[in-house]
Amino acid sequence: MERTGDASVLHLEEHALPPLAADEVLIEHKAIGVNYIDLYHRKGLYPLPLPSGLGLEAAGVVVEAGSAVSTLPVGARVGYNAAGVGAYASHRVVKAARVVSLPDTLDFTRAAACLLRGMTVEYLVCRTYPVQRDERVLLTAAAGGVGLLATQWLKKLGAFVIGCVGSEAKAAIARRNGCDEVILYRSENIAERVRAITDGEGVSVVYDSVGAATFDASLDSLKTRGTMVSFGNASGAIERFDLALLSQKGSLFITRPSLLSYVASREDLTLSAQRLFAMLAEGLTVEVADTLPLQDTGEAHRRLEARETSGALVLLP
Ligand code: NDP
Q1: How far apart are CA 242 and CA 238, in angstroms?
Q2: What structural domains and CATH numbers belong to the chain?
Q3: Distance, CA 65 to ligand 1 centroid (Å)?
Q4: Pocket test for ligand 1, best of 35, 36, 56, 116 (most atoms within 8 A of CB)
Q5: What is the pTM (predicted TM-score) of this model?
Q6: What is the pLDDT of residue 162?
Q7: pLDDT < 50: residue spans in the chain
Q8: CA of 160 to the centre of ligand 1 (A)
Q9: Which residues contact 180 (CB under 8 A, 6 or more apart)?
Q10: In angstroms, how far apart are the furthest CA atoms of the chain?
């Protein structure tokens, strides 16, 4: 894209690949994940230097390895989720240290659907706020890409999951996926429902990715000394925040985490990947909403933005 804006700013271009450095690999992409953050980048909410490529997540095969790369031979099945923007491409040169090997049982499409979202769920429920058995959790966009994985992971931890969704159809999906209670947040009052479900107590933690539209209600759904994890802004950014609210509402905790800082080191990246792959081996299912050819990226963005999807959209180069 040369400028920010709606999906029409996206177009395909041919570029020569940069020369391969000793610590890099050239990957032929087989599948590319479309993530909500790609919309923030496209719209300029998270500014990028322009012109820019787009996309953070892809899976494919190593077709060339730099001279210092010993662990990723040509032919290795790999993926990445935090190697800078530019994943919407047929081929890409990335640092080998940013790449993880895929388990044989994980096909490219599912890998591109879960490397970014699944590792996000890992850090949110295991490291940002380590959820304990029987704790009550509120989750927004519970039928979305992150939401479906988060619900399953939370259930495996033994949590009681209250999921917010935008339609009856998504409510059915969220329930089938394991949500104990579902709130239709376009028509129901979130905090009132949460108080009713939890006998007035509130939840231990809220994972809120919707942002502006749900922020206040999420805070009001917490129990005393509960934790607010604000990790996205699908409805718009939270403009400003009065710290005193945390004390008024019961000594609350708040954090605004991002995947990039939880997988910044090689150690954290591999830890997160191992935990995700272990969960997949235990039966975590990855929902692919649809696959589209790379040239239909604009249509993929339109569907995600219009709240039409449940699960992840994947582009095929
Ligand atoms: P989703 O598949 O969850 O799609 C976003 C969903 O948000 C929609 O389907 C919709 O579900 C809900 N939503 C609520 N309000 C709006 C609105 N006004 N416009 C559009 N959607 C709305 O996307 P992803 O799985 O890719 O990402 C989920 C969230 O997690 C995003 O906010 C993303 O930014 C965040 N995220 C944060 C990360 C981090 O490290 N901080 C990493 C990865 C993702 P419904 O109709 O049910 O309300």
Answers
A1: 11
A2: 7-114+286-316 (3.90.180.10), 133-255 (3.40.50.720)
A3: 35
A4: 36
A5: 0.98
A6: 99
A7: none
A8: 21
A9: 160, 161, 162
A10: 61
